[in-house]
């Protein structure tokens, strides 16, 4: 996700950056763009380096180099370009945005947060910086920081951007167990963009937590129609069936996940719950043991598995 966000933001910025260039510099940059579009990546890199050798004051050639290196997962060269960019354009907000994107992909989150904050301090009403920060706060379970970031700024963005940021706000309120507020933001997101599938999934997750399982299935039908084998959609569908006391239907759904990912801890845990409901305790314990081996230590699902094993393991 973070890498897709990085590449998308680079593409948009390359499209809009305008700079005065001499005809020879302009021609060299356009040749590099054309080579990139034809898939001649080595040629494009060589031409961009020549352009920058002749004129280091232009932003767009650096951005195209960043895009190429990021698409190739060439982290070393990506960092080299970012280092030069920061030296050449220390107060250019795009540079700090891309630093944030890069360090998010690398999971160096403290540096990413500092870069996004610097971007915002420079006056950037920049969706990618806000979305990048929001994603990190969600990953770190920092609901208060996320709410503080978005609630005072969300109205400045385009409708499609608002829809995605409302989904982040909804997730923060789920962390605080304020499910009504979570649904309020999801309703806002749906009114803006009824085609954004993540909103349907988040609504189903929230409704499942509230115990409104039938309503959750309605949202999941829409999500499943468009992404029929998405593990998150299937997981929430199985949870809804389990909540409705239909363990056999739930097992069928969880098996779809486990056929593709046999050691998925959350699916193993939830299938074990179904087996316990139907009196198949030994099979359930075996699934829980598998889940324990593959769950991240100290994660929520790990704690859930430990609790059940303490009760049923002999």
Outline:
The protein contains 18 helices and no strands.
What does this structure look like?
It is a single chain. By secondary structure, the chain is mainly α. The chain has a domain of 86 residues: Tetratricopeptide repeat domain (Serine Threonine Protein Phosphatase 5, Tetratricopeptide repeat), CATH 1.25.40. Helix content is 78%, strand content 0%. The chain contains 18 helices and no strands. Helix 7 packs antiparallel against helix 8 and helix 13 runs antiparallel to helix 14. The chain is elongated and about 75 Å long. About 4% of the residues have low confidence.
CATH fold annotation of one domain: Serine Threonine Protein Phosphatase 5, Tetratricopeptide repeat
Range of helix content? over 70%
What structural class should be given to the helix and strand makeup?
Answer: mainly alpha
Quaternary state of this entry equals single chain
The overall pLDDT average reads 89
Number of strand elements: 0
CATH architecture of one domain: Alpha Horseshoe
Shape: elongated
Give the SSE string.
HHHHHHHHHHHHHHHHHH
What are the segments in which pLDDT stays under 50 over at least 5 consecutive residues? 10-21
Looking at CATH, the homologous superfamily of one domain is Tetratricopeptide repeat domain
What's the arrangement of secondary structure elements?
Blueprint: H1 2-16, H2 23-37, H3 41-54, H4 59-71, H5 75-88, H6 93-105, H7 109-121, H8 127-139, H9 143-151, H10 159-175, H11 179-192, H12 197-210, H13 213-226, H14 231-243, H15 247-260, H16 265-277, H17 281-294, H18 300-312
Helix pairs in contact: 1-4, 1-6, 2-3, 3-4, 4-5, 5-6, 6-7, 6-8, 7-8, 8-9, 8-10, 9-10, 10-11, 10-12, 11-12, 12-13, 12-14, 13-14, 14-15, 14-16, 15-16, 16-17, 17-18
């Amino acid at each position: 996700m973070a890498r897709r966000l990085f590449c998308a933001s680079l593409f948009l910025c390359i499209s809009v950056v305008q700079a005065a260039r001499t005809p020879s510099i302009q021609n060299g940059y356009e040749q590099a763009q054309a080579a990139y579009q034809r898939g001649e990546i080595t040629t494009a890199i060589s031409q961009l380096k020549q352009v920058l050798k002749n004129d280091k004051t232009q932003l767009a050639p650096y951005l195209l180099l960043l895009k190429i290196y990021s698409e190739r997962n060439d982290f070393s060269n990506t960092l080299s370009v970012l280092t030069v960019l920061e030296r050449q354009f220390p107060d250019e907000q795009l540079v700090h945005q891309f630093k944030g994107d890069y360090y998010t992909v690398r999971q160096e989150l403290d540096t990413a947060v500092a870069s996004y904050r610097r971007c915002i301090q420079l006056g950037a009403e920049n969706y990618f910086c806000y979305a990048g920060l929001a994603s990190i706060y969600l990953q770190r379970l920092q609901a208060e920081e996320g709410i503080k970031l978005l609630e005072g700024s969300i109205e400045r963005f385009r409708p499609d951007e608002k829809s995605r940021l409302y989904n982040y706000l909804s997730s923060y309120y789920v962390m605080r167990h304020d499910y009504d507020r979570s649904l309020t933001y999801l309703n806002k997101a749906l009114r803006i963009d009824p085609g954004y599938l993540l909103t349907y999934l988040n609504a189903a997750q929230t409704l499942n937590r509230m115990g409104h399982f039938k309503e959750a299935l309605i949202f999941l039908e829409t999500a499943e129609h468009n992404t029929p084998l998405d593990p998150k959609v299937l997981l929430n569908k199985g949870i809804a069936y389990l909540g409705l006391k239909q363990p056999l239907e739930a097992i069928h759904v969880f098996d779809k996940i486990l056929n593709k990912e046999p050691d998925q801890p959350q699916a193993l845990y939830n299938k074990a719950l179904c087996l316990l409901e139907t009196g198949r305790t030994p099979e359930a314990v075996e699934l829980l043991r598998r889940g324990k081996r593959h769950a991240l230590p100290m994660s929520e699902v790990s704690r859930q598995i430990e609790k059940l094993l303490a009760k049923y393991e002999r």
